[in-house]
Amino acid sequence: MTAAYRSLSPKLDQVWRLLSLLPGRDFDAEEAAALLGTDSEKTMHCLAALHAEGLLAVICREGCSDLRWQIPTTLRSDAARYREQDVPIEQQEQAINRLLGWVQPAAEWAAACATPYRASSQQALVANRSRADRPELDAPGALRWLTDHHETITGCVRIADDHGQFKRVIALAATEWPPARHHLIDPGNWWVADTTALRAAEALNDQEAAARILDRLGVWGRRTGNHEQAIDYHCRAADRWALLGNPVRRAESRRRIGHVLLARQQIQDALELFEAAEFAFEQIPTDQGRRNLGLTLVDIAAAHLAADRPDEPSSNDDDAFLDAFSAARRGYELIRAHAPLDLTSQARALVVKGEAGERLHYTGVLDDLRKARDLARQAGAVSVQVAALDVLADALRRHGAQADAAAVMVERRTLATRLRS
Q: Which InterPro entries does this chain map to (predicted)?
């Protein structure tokens, strides 16, 4: 061990050893303060002192909103070894429990801020708005917080699982859904958290939690190209929702099977499922039912557009585009009316409506696509923003605005690079 370590005061020595309990590769002062049970100011002094001794490194990770720290790789095993040798197990357990006690409400609060249109999020926002330690975040800020802390959240899922805290496992895994939905975290981490949460739900015999997790795993399967696996997860989720007597969620699971079929270019099969989901949501006159009806109509519109083959012209093309435009327009109106805070879905609806309108040579298409881009930007939905820019660039080229189209493509490439990284 270095001379710097041997010269540490007992307090700093204890802090450095305990920091090796943090499960992520790096951490911020908020995580460290929670683990140590001290306030932010004292924690920052300790971190700065350890950095001055060369026992902590400051790292700059692109997109991070706060300064982050890291025990250098060459010293991490030493810190863990000395912690195991010299720090009583009771102190280690207390530190872990402090971390778990902080991360769950903090992550749930950020997830609620990231998805304020959900009924459960609205309840959390109302219950916690008066707390001075919970400043309300806008959706992009909440997504950044969750993305910055996703390694810690996933690590805490594993720790809670090891400690048999199964309700905490389920709650923590759910907080990774917003950044995963926006393609902002590595699907591998999302997969680990949700498979662990599924085991926890089954251990508790919590059928509702298991159904929600199966739906999330199905989305993960579709996005990673594991289509058979995705269909299996969504079918299992739909069966559980049926047993629970929840027609809204059952129809939603079946709608997601339609997404998988659409990704596999099984257009007619996807349309049949979307139309069945549309019928189910038509019977549910609640805000949730109307929002899901709007989402389904946008799916139907996307399926009509996907059925078009430029190399196979058909006399029915205009009819398909008209059906797509009509479905997307009504879907957008329903989402805007019944989920005004769901900017991501509104943006997606406008992208599909704009694409259909462009193929029909309608006016107002560019305005729709620019609005879609702006809504996606406000929501932090980078993937939807990229889709809006794709269609906008094509529309500008068809209108002869080559310079504007080139500028849009530069913006699109920048966002796509960020999405891949």
A: TPR-like_helical_dom_sf (IPR011990)
